[in-house]
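Troubleshooting: if your tokenizer reports a length mismatch, compare your output against this known-good record of 81 residues.
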Amino acid sequence: MPNIKSAKKRVLVSKVRQERNKAAKTQLKTVMKQARAEGADDAARLAAVRKLDKAAGKGLIHKNKAARLKSRMAKKASATA
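Known-good structure output:
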């Protein structure tokens, strides 16, 4: 445990941010799973794309990862249609 006051604060702040990031990533995974599900509609895919864009914009995931996931989702959707 740190002794310096600012270091103690950093520990607390990083813990709060870690929990927030974990919750956001879990929510993103859930939305992606729903979009990939058999018989998923366009609304589910659109919601997933929005979540991916927001996550990439906030630095939660890398922008190239978001682009890759969106591309794969679109490719699968066009193949089934």
